[in-house]
Amino acid sequence: MASLFRDRTLGYSRRDSTTTAAAAVSTMSSGSAATSSCRFSTSSSVLSPLPSPFPDLTPSLSATDLRETAYEIFVAACRTSTGKALTYIPSNSSDRSPSPSPSASNSNSSSPSMQRSLTSTAASKMKKALGLRSSSSSGIKRAEGSPGSGGKPKKPVTIGELMRVQMKVSENVDSRIRRALLRIAAGQVGRRIESTVLPLELLQQFKAADFTDQREYDAWQKRNLKILEAGLLLHPHMPLDKSNTAAQRLRQIIQAALDRPIETGRNNESMQVLRTAVMALANRSSDGSLFESCHWADGLPLNLRLYEILLEACFDVNDEASIIEEVDELMDLIKKTWGILGLDQMLHNICFSWVLFNRYVATGQVENDLLDAADSQLAEVAKDAKMTKDPAYAKILNSTLTAMLGWAEKRLLAYHDTFDAGNIESMPTIVSIGVSAAKILVEDISNEYRRRRKGEVDVARSRIDTYIRSSLRTAFAQLMEKADSSRRASRHQANPLPVLAILAKDVGELASKEKEIFSPILKRWHPFAAGVAVATLHVCYGNELKQFVSSITELTPDAVQVLRAADKLEKDLVQIAVEDSVDSDDGGKAIIREMPPFEAEGAMANMVKDWIKTRIDRLKEWVDRNLQQEVWNPQANEGGFAPSAVEVLRIIDETLDAFFQLPIPMHPALLPDLMGGLDRCLQYYVSKAKSGCGSRNTYVPSMPALTRCTIATKLWKKKDKTLNTKRNSQVATMNGDNSFGVLQLCVRINTFHRIRTELEVLEKRIITLLRNSESAHVEDFSNGLGKKFEISPAACVEGIQQLSDAVGYRIVFHDLSPVLWDGLYIGEPSSSRIEPFLQELEKNLTIISNTVNERVRTRIIVDIMRASFDGFLLVLLAGGPSRIFTQQDSQIIEDDFKSLKDVFWANGDGLPVDVINKYSTTVRDVLPLFRADAESLIEQFRRSTLETYGSSAKSRLPLPPTSGQWNPTEPNTLLRVLCYRNDEAASKFLKKTYNLPKKL
């Protein structure tokens, strides 16, 4: 970065390869003194300043006009405060000795500052105060001689000549001005310069003959007339009444003179008329009287515009971004113009702040020292603004600060576009200027603000908040366009990223950049700058995400990518907000409230749940469709189970694979939903598969009414055979349905067992898949919740038990009914024993053993054995009047029961003895009753009945109900043994006590 203050010789800067200012001045004075403008050869770039905050003076006044007038005022103001005349030294004087020449013997009466030679000076106090750096050397170099001068070194010039060079005024013009001022001073001895209407006096001092040519004279005259117009008519110190005759007269004179130049000079009639009109206006007072004071150039904004030009002279003409080394001395002289221009320190502070700021802008915004100086000067303006409520001051303050604030905010409202690594150093100062200007405008100028308590508004924080939100919204919109362009550029590539996924990544990077680069700067004015930034980005992205989520209907790869990217972005943004707000009173709650959750994970979870529901619904439909077609054929599968079970397990396995392949971060959280759905589907499969297969109660015949055996009929006659029991009507229905045969039931049992076994395998596989998922944690494996099938295993066990019961009781009470129920012990027990039933039973056991899985084979055989024992007892105790037993038949019965048990023992190859004994207990306990005599049975029955019914049974024994729970001490069991006893005592007891019928 270039230094603002460099080594120079009387305005000398970067002139190693160019003509010096002194040489240029000398050349002009000798070769082109006729021109009134100064033509310097410089290496500087063209300035690009901001429009002046001071209103337009008049379209007819050019920048050159204003500069020459400002210089005239400067020279006039720098005359001696005693009112003595300025010494005039001709520009062609050959004697330039350091000491006063004889021809300038009265030069000591000139302003000391104006005529003081430039020598080595101490470091500038102003530079220190404004934070401007000093040049590397404070020595004053001498300017080289101009071309044609023989290279003779010139003496150091004065401050006055330095100002002339800075303002690009030729020596010829400077000489004419000084000559005129000497004449004016001679004619107005003792009169203060601020009481002089300078343009009027200058017009009176010169005629056309004093100029090189008529055009120069005409231009000079018109300029002074237009200056009078600006100062007295367009921008007067006090407002003019439209009826003011002096104003009307002056306006007519000026308009006429602009068309046809008037004759100037002393004692000229036209000049006297002009003087009368001018002085009448210049000497107006607030009450309308004359000669209170003289006002011609102290009306706003003319004075400020002229003063602005003077202040700009502090900048080197050859290096617009650098302030000359002699700024302290020059500024002292410039301030002498306050009396003429009607300025004070407060207006100086405003104007100087603007000049420093505008020069920074005009020179390409590269000299940050200028910006820092403007910011420092603005701090003085802030102090001034609190000390006065002058409306004129407030008006100019408002326009100046509005211009500065407008420029600053144009950059701060989109600071991501304005600042980068190359110019980030200027950002704190630009922010400071913007905030300072806003605070002054709001707190010290705004009437509305004054009416409110100042504690209610934090201007600085409010402005920074606005800058952050505006800039980030702009940056976000640019990222949107960039992401869309990237998407279009990659549309022909494999698996291009969705726009919002690209955008989420870019927004995350933008948030990180904001936190690292911009937030530390902005935190000076806003304690939660980073939090506001990420909250803004969160809202911007959230709006886009909301539209995206509302448009998707299924879990696509694009949707998952976007939602995952959004979820990561939200976590990053919230983390920044929390870290930034850690020291806040509310712990960052206010910022977090500005960040309504994306609920990306929730949206993703909902879509995954929809995906799960769709899969589960399809699986259930598949179960319905395939179970209707399933034939339950043992040969359909080598394992003896249904093909539909193989398929449903395959579908479940594929569904689990597909679930864990979903690129989502919440597999553990959503796994219970999937497991629950699959679990219910399997339960549904089991329920549908066993539906209609019946159970134990389906096949056990209903208990017949209690009857007395037919004693007279020893031989069973077929024609007397009656149906002793009523079977469940469902038996008849299933009798002709092959899908519910014993073998088909066995296939169903095998199927349930297969499913139960495979579920254990699936559960282990689920754990493996879960461990391999990216989002799994240790706690996800600490318990089995959501990772196991909860209801289908129990459904399988229950289904196996139900069908196993159904198989046993179907074989005994349905398939073998002809040889058991219709054959065993019908008529004479000795001629209708159990052997036919055992033969058929063994055949069925062989078939079942070859059909069912060995893991469930024992259970089914046990259930067949249990059904056989129940059937044997039912024949003995509820076989109807066709069955009759004597006491001697007890041995036959016991032998037959032993044979029945032997079938299941199978010489040690069948069921274990302890299992057989467990289920044969009831039969073993009841069989001794058949060996007992009738009297003993009757006595036991009486005793048991009395124990059951109490004293109410003494007068008449009640008929005990049939419970089906046979027991040797139970009244109904004892009574049934008596009913089927071929014994006179039993007959008499039953006839007398109950009068039971002999037939159904």
From TrEMBL:
Cleavable signal peptide: none
Polar residues bias: start-end ranges: 114-123
Entries under InterPro entries matching the protein: Munc13_1, Munc13_dom-2, PATROL1_C, unc-13_homologue
Domain MHD1: 560-703
Biased composition (Low complexity): 90-113
Domain MHD2 residues, every copy: 831-941
Top-rank taxon: Eukaryota
Residue span of region Disordered: 86-159
PANTHER family: ELONGATION FACTOR TS (DUF810), PROTEIN UNC-13 HOMOLOG
Protein's recorded name: Protein unc-13 homolog
